[in-house]
Design goal:
312 residues, alpha+beta, six-stranded mixed sheet, 3 helices, 21 strands, 24% helix, elongated
Length: 312
């Protein structure tokens, strides 16, 4: 009997050495947490150790760099004074967009066989719609392609958009030949070929299911007919101007006007003419100055009278 037991002891020891050890266990009730902006976010973290009664609790936030949230029994950085901890569960108060991201709860139990365990939680901060910015042209000509744009870059999740004309909703196109298109995701309302009937006041509504929808201020868009006469006249005038300038430049080039020697001759001629003009003006001013006090003598009137007759 004893001999049989002695033979089993090495096998039992080998089995004990090969049996898996129990690591520290870390878990969470929610791996993805979504809360509205300015409310509290609860990041749950539960743990179970093998034998260590006082494990070390750490919270870190992942980003470009890993930063400490909770370390050595204190909250760090921007979380100091605006977060609490219960066990290993952290509550962040009045969260902002800066708080959104991925967090990691780490439990270190040096007395356990496997001393480290962790769990990850992603925090999304939801933002209700803001008043969208609307780009609506004030005027357009009939037959042209016109786009109206609406955008809210702050809402999370991204907002969807709908358009109104004169306070009446513009429904989605009902057939492929519709004169307009609406993209509720990008907020673009496009008219393929506007008509005068499209004149009106337009506004856009943004909503994302988080908080009340927001609408931009209405803007008037007026569709006008094309002034064909003015357009044709302008086109003809531009063409004539181009032709005249082209022909004139060609003729001047042929006559050597743009040659270097010609430019020098023109330069000296213009300089000489300018100098002569200045000299003439100077001489004229000199003569005027020298004669400013001159008074011509009075001329005597000569009356010819016959005082005596001569006879031959």
């Amino acid at each position: 009997m004893m001999e049989g037991w002695s033979a089993c002891v090495p096998i039992v020891i080998l089995l004990l050495q090969c049996s898996p050890t129990v690591p520290v266990i870390v878990s969470t009730s929610r791996h993805k947490v979504e809360v509205r902006e300015s409310t509290d976010a609860v990041l749950s973290c539960m743990f179970q150790t093998e034998s260590d009664p006082n494990p070390r609790i750490e919270w870190k936030k992942k980003g470009k760099d890993v930063s400490f949230v909770y370390y050595e029994g204190h909250f760090r950085g921007t979380f100091e004074g605006r977060a609490t901890i219960d066990g290993a569960t952290v509550t962040l108060q009045k969260v902002t967009q800066e708080d959104a991201g991925e967090y990691r709860c780490e439990i270190s139990a040096p007395l356990d066989t496997v001393s480290l365990g962790e769990t990850n939680i992603t925090l999304t901060v939801l933002v209700p719609p803001h008043t969208p910015s609307c780009e609506i042209p004030s005027t357009a000509v009939t037959g042209s392609v016109v786009q109206l744009r609406c955008r809210d870059q702050q809402s999370i999740p991204p907002a969807t958009y709908s358009w109104f004309k004169d306070n009446q909703p513009i429904g989605p196109p009902r057939h492929a030949n519709a004169t307009y298109l609406i993209d509720s995701r990008t907020g673009v309302l496009e008219f393929k070929s506007v008509t005068k009937e499209d004149t009106g006041q337009y506004r856009c509504l943004a909503k994302n299911g988080i908080g009340p929808p927001k609408m931009c201020e209405g803007k008037q868009m007026t569709i006008e007919d094309v002034n064909i006469t003015a357009t044709v006249a302008t086109t003809v005038a531009v063409i004539l101007l181009v032709v005249i300038c082209g022909c004139g430049g060609f003729l001047l080039h042929r006559s050597g006007f743009f040659s270097p020697g010609h430019r020098r001759r023109s330069f000296w001629i213009s300089q000489c003419h300018g100098a002569a003009h200045i000299s003439s003006q100077t001489l004229h001013r000199t003569e005027d100055t020298s004669n400013v006090n001159y008074i011509p003598p009075p001329q005597e009137h000569q009356d010819f009278k016959h005082t005596q007759s001569f006879m031959l």
